[in-house]
Write a structure and sequence with these properties.
2 copies of one chain form a homodimer.
Chain A (H helix, E strand, L loop, with lengths): L14 H27 L5 H12 L3 E2 H8 L3 H13 L3 E5 L7 E5 L1 H25 L1 H14 L11
Antiparallel strand pairs in A: 1-3, 2-3
The structure holds a DNA duplex.
DNA sequence: GCATATAAGTCAACATGACTGACTTAAAAT
DNA sequence: ATTTTAAGTCAGTCATGTTGACTTATATGC
């Protein structure tokens, strides 16, 4: 495994450096999601509900199709959690004015309360990490994760 | 949401900056795992098999208890995938010499072949991202993710 | 206006991966 | 000899993902 040089790129990466990067992502995701999972379970919800709630909160009035694109799951999978969230009064649905086939999703007051609670937990964790790592590191974190993401979805992060 | 200053910490973080950090992690994890999932499904395996294979490869001779600590799942969940991997000849088990209750796990040649294939996919993705982001960014990525991880597990990354 | 395409929802069936709690077995430690 | 530990197992449950086929309503293009 003692790789030698490989081309003009000055950035030489050993396997163990790459594995460290892989494992950091695994452990961070594991711990990042665990906290909210605990809150959600007290509502009888799971991670799938959280994802729906989260992205509806970011884009009030998002359509079902748009949400499916973000989550990359099947209509059936989303429909299960979505109809549960609507039935229990966390999410409201209204027909779009221009295209009345589209159903636009919004959080109700009850939904917003839950969303705030969950987002506070996550903002606290990432905020603490950002502060511990420092401003320079944040930019690096963003750059690397953005490059990991499929090219088609990177445009979601233009500011 | 136009927060004003908050204390002596010079690093001021707006909600939308934190949400960007949260979403980067979501999309990156989604895309990072998707590629391997496709390979695994051709073997009739899932993500859980991959995680076992991956960490056995990193620590040949790891015990079941150690693996459970890393994955933070129940014995039953691990046992299902592990016994499947052993039955199909991807993982071998031997009793520890000193403590014969402990079962030490190793990849077989067949298991190593699969592991190499999966790791190559992941190393390529993270390697490309590292190169695209640059050496400085890598350090930032590491710092932030390390701070997201539960304190008890950070020691896994001392070099 | 009619044919086609699209957005959404639904039904049935299934796989995977997580969980709990209780129990067994073997071996180590006290 | 008793207790603790490591591992495995049994039985049942739940959440979240999948597929494929079908319906309904609406929009769009000819």
């Amino acid at each position: 495994m003692t790789d030698l040089k490989s081309g003009p790129n000055p950035l030489f990466l050993r396997h163990d450096q790459l594995h460290q990067g892989i494992e950091l992502l695994f452990y961070a995701y594991r711990d990042f999601t665990a906290e909210c999972d605990a809150v959600l379970s007290t509502y009888g919800f799971g991670r799938a509900h959280h994802r729906a709630i989260y992205f509806i909160a970011r884009s009030p009035g998002i359509s079902v199709a748009e949400l499916l694109e973000i989550l990359r799951i099947t209509k059936q999978s989303l429909s299960r959690v979505l109809s549960q969230l609507v039935r229990e009064g966390f999410v409201s649905v209204e027909k779009a004015q221009t295209d009345r086939r589209r159903r636009l999703l919004r959080l109700t007051d009850k939904g917003e309360k839950l969303e705030k609670r969950l987002s506070e937990v996550q903002r606290a964790r990432i905020g603490d990490a950002y502060r511990a790592a420092g401003g320079n590191a944040i930019e690096g974190y963003r750059k690397v994760l953005l490059s990991i993401i499929d090219e088609t979805d990177r445009k979601r992060f233009v500011e």
